[in-house]
Amino acid sequence: MPALVSIVLPYLNMARYLPAAVESVLAQSYAEWELIVVDDGSRSEEARLARDLAGRHAPRVRVLAHADGLSHGASATRNVGIAEARGGYVAFLDADDIWLPEKLARQVDLLERFPRAAMTFARVRYFSDDPQGAAEFDQPFGALHEGLYSPPKLTLEFLRDASVYPCPTAVLVRREALQSVGGFDPRFRKVRTDLVAWTKINTHYAVHADSRIVARYRQHPASSVAQMNAAGNYLRYELAFYDWLLHYIETLPPVVRAEIEPLACERMYYYSVQRARETGWRSRLAWRLAVAPRLAAYHAFWRQSRWLKAMLPGGASEDMRPRIERVE
Predict the structure, then answer these.
(1) How far is C-alpha 261 from the geometric centre of its chain's CA atoms?
(2) How far apart are CA 52 and CA 39, in angstroms?
(3) Which of 45, 90, 237, 258 has the fewest C-beta atoms lying within 10 Å of its C-beta?
(4) Separation CA 169–CA 180 (nearest Å)
């Protein structure tokens, strides 16, 4: 009997896009699925539209919500759906994205052909619904190769080149593996919710990479990434992620931690210096006074001492920085 896929769709005031997302699920060539729409505190009219849409396709489509009816962010909202999932596989679809018809069929087949893989991911095609917006383009695959990656190789690839790490819309994961690492971290409400979850998975399990385009990723002003960039909060979110990562790697076996630690320290150093300079600590002495206490708070920086030495008189300048790749 084909395996059941539980599709978790977090929803917050996206009524204009939700019908297209649901239609892309209904159009899947793989028929064994359930769709769990989780309302993250939408306005009453938007919430009603989601319930009406689900009602037309019940019982395969159902709507859940947080117990208090409030908004708790994308991570906590996905966790509500995961907790109610009945399938052995879990897929994610954001309300403003669209799957291609073979998405589930291809990814279920890959996980069945690669039983060691806890997760498989593919690529998306970025598009704008603004006629004057940017032309469509495919997500890069960068230095990745198709096939299995053992822990923690994908963590390193995603840290080196943020443009290649998968959107939730392009992932299929075994529910047992996802739950074993604690699902999504509710402290990350909007941005880097996915990268935190993928890091936890690919530091414990093998993961399969696939270069196929399996979904369309909508770019629009109301998206979390667009709002982050418009508010100028990119550095703040990057610092939050690397703060989490530097604490998280302390829980990993030393041999795994040792692979991630140098790159994590490099990125935290760079973003910390940029943040200090952005907030007015512009002289060499000033940004060192601002950055040194932050770095010294992490055990990793004492093991990777060259970054602390850079804080000393005569140490490296703010130009000692990594190559950063990202997609807006």
Answers:
(1) 20
(2) 13
(3) 45
(4) 21
How distant is the alpha carbon of residue 238 from its chain centre?
13
pLDDT at 325 exceeding the cut of 70 = no
Domains in the chain: boundaries:
5-229, 232-309
Take residue 75 and report the two structure tokens written for it. Answer: 């991570």
The Cα 23–Cα 19 span in angstroms is: 6
Asked whether the whole model's pTM tops 0.85, one would answer yes
| Residues contacting 187, CB < 8 A, separation 6+ | 75, 244
Take residue 80 and report the two structure tokens written for it.
């509500």
Dihedrals phi, psi of 59, to nearest 5 degrees: -90, 5
- Whether residue 322 is predicted with pLDDT greater than 80 in this model: the reply is no
The residues with which 138 forms a beta bridge, in sequence order, are 125
Nearest residue to 258 (alpha-carbon basis) of 247, 270, 266, 250: 250
What CATH number labels 5-229? Answer: 3.90.550.10
The pLDDT tens digits of the residues spanning 288-308 come to 888 888 899 999 999 998 888
Question: Do 129 and 98 touch, CB atoms closer than 8 A?
Answer: no
The rounded distance, in Å, linking the Cα atoms of 211 and 139 is 9
Burial bucket for residue 268 (CB in 10 Å: 0-12, 13-18, 19+): buried
Distance CA 187, CA 170 (A): 23
Task: Kindly report the length of the chain.
Answer: 328
pLDDT digits (tens, 9 = 90+) for 61-116: 999 999 999 999 999 999 999 999 999 999 999 999 999 999 999 999 999 999 99
Q: Contact, 29 vs 112, CB < 8 A?
A: no
Strands 171-174 and 117-128: antiparallel
Dihedral of alpha carbons 123, 125, 128, 134, sign: positive
